[in-house]
């Protein structure tokens, strides 16, 4: 269960310019505990750029992002500790197995995860049996995506930023990921995700933002 003390992501007057093009300006929203924001838009409309701004990997041309009322630039590592980012690349070590990748990702996030808990996380994404022991470089794209997303099954961070979490997943895995996201939101977490797909999210407080509209 997440500590619910004052979870709030505030975005004020955000402007983003990349490659000489303005992607958006005057973008403002607030998310509090138990809320999910689904970001949509055409290819190139700025969805990934927005997530990179939200996690502090990109700096805005104008505007500010606050977490728990404090600018994320000032929070630094204290903000990153509360953040689970899954980018559209899987960030897996090809030579390591799914089990090893899940345990390594947990370790980097400061979470102690034994073998049984890592197996359980993979099982929640439908990865069981010998697949757990095959180096990730030999898995299919969808299987790799499942391994990357298994991090969500053991994540303790309250804020999840997910770039195209459903890309490359089949219907069963899409359902598993939607269920994990739904559980996190119901437990009071905050989620921002980008997607091109229409996925039924088991969440009552889901909001949508369309970039480039
Ligand atoms: N490193 C970069 N340098 C310059 N411009 C960039 C860079 N990365 C992205 N862009 C530009 O920013 C714009 C938005 O890219 P972004 O990846 O945020 O879009 P997106 O909405 O996530 O697209 P997609 O749906 O294709 O994933 C694009 O026009 C892209 O060319």
Automatic annotation (TrEMBL):
Domain of life: Bacteria
SUPFAM superfamilies documented for this protein: P-loop containing nucleoside triphosphate hydrolases
Keywords, ordered alphabetically: ATP-binding, Cell membrane, Cytochrome c-type biogenesis, Membrane, Nucleotide-binding, Translocase, Transport
One Pfam family it belongs to: ABC_tran
Listed InterPro entries: AAA+_ATPase, ABC_transporter-like_ATP-bd, ABC_transporter-like_CS, ABC_transptr_haem_export_CcmA, P-loop_NTPase
Signal peptide coordinates: none
ABC transporter domain mapped to chain residues: 6-211
UniProt cross-references to PANTHER family, sorted A to Z: ABC TRANSPORTER I FAMILY MEMBER 1
NCBIfam families: ccmA (TIGR01189), PRK13538.1 (NF010061)
Designated name of the protein: Cytochrome c biogenesis heme-transporting ATPase CcmA
Organism: Dentiradicibacter hellwigii
Gene name per UniProt: ccmA
């Amino acid at each position: 269960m997440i500590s619910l003390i004052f979870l709030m992501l505030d975005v004020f007057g955000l402007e983003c310019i990349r490659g000489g093009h303005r992607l958006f300006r005057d973008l403002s929203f607030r998310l509090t505990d138990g809320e999910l924001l689904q970001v949509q838009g055409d290819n190139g409309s700025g969805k990934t750029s927005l997530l990179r701004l939200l996690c502090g990997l990109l700096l805005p041309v104008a505007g500010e992002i606050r977490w728990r009322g404090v600018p994320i630039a000032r929070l630094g590592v204290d903000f990153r500790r509360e953040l689970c980012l899954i980018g559209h690349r899987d960030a897996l070590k090809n030579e390591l197995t799914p089990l090893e990748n899940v345990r390594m990702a947990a370790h980097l996030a400061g979470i102690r995860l034994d073998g049984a808990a890592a197996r359980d996380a993979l099982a929640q994404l439908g990865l069981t049996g010998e697949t757990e022991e095959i180096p990730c470089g030999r898995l299919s794209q969808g299987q790799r995506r499942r391994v990357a997303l298994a991090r969500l099954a053991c994540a303790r961070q309250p804020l999840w930023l997910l770039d195209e979490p459903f890309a490359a997943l089949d219907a069963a895995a899409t359902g598993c990921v939607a269920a994990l996201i739904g559980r996190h939101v119901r437990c009071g977490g905050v989620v921002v995700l980008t997607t091109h797909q229409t996925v039924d999210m088991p969440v009552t407080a889901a909001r949508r933002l369309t970039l480039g509209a």
